[in-house]
Amino acid sequence: MTQEQCSHRNNVQSSEKPQVYKVGIYGWRKRCLYFFVLLLMILILINLALTIWILKVMNFTIDGMGNLRITEKGVKLEGDSEFLQPLYAKEIRSSPGRPLFLQSSRNVSVNIVNSNNQLLTQLVTGSSGFKARGKMFEVKSTSGKLLFSADEQEVVVGAERLRVMGAEGAVFSKSVETPHVRAEPFKELRLESPTRSLLMEAPKGIQILAEAGDIQAICRNELRLESKDGEIALDAQRIRLMRLPEGKASSSSSSSGTRQTVYEVCVCPNGRLFLSLAGAGSTCQINNNVCL
Known about the structure:
Elements: H1 3-15, H2 28-57, E1 64-65, E2 68-70, E3 75-77, E4 107-113, E5 119-126, E6 129-133, E7 137-140, E8 146-150, E9 155-157, E10 263-267, E11 273-277
Antiparallel strand pairs: 1-2, 2-3, 4-5, 5-6, 7-8, 8-9, 10-11
Keywords: Cell membrane, Cytoplasm, Cytoskeleton, Disulfide bond, Glycoprotein, Membrane, Signal-anchor, Transmembrane, Transmembrane helix
Main location: membrane
Transmembrane segments: 32-55
């Protein structure tokens, strides 16, 4: 190529204008982008409105939500609260001066477990009654005095008086140890064992006292009074021995005198008592056929 041709070509290229390429989104793509941006803004406004409405309805505040308040000491609930799942808490108490009310359609259970999740103490209140399970059960007064205590070994009643209001009284399958047994004023005290024996023991004596009434001891077979080292004293103005057998005299020793109504009390060698018609002397030897 000659030098004239090269210079002519350069002049032609320099005389042409540079081409400009536009970069961007135009046409329907631009309209779709604006539409999606507008739709996103509408969704953001709707979500913001719903969030504000939920915060208003649920009463969300800095301290909590609704009747729930978060304090330094824990969580505070005002009004009625319903728990659909188990509640785990260290302490549950009401507001000062207001009662604590627990309600359930089935039962209310309080369980105490150890670190191995083994049940130690349980308290259940339901439609069938009140149940308590544990090693020991105690009831104390406001002053701290023990009123009632129960465990596997014994049951202790610490009150000054134990009253049984049932019509049938109290039934004990084992022994009873008490320093004093008495009935209410103007009521009868009755100790009874329908099918077994009744035994009263005391190392320093047993005192049975009825200040304004009678004392009755009734048995089907034998009533035995025994004193090993002392004596049995019957101290009264009148002593009546009812239904004592009457000794009969033999035909050879019977007299034909008038019938008398005066008897003497005789004692057999085995301790049995019987009556014998009184005479000028003792008639116990004559009428001792009861001792045979």
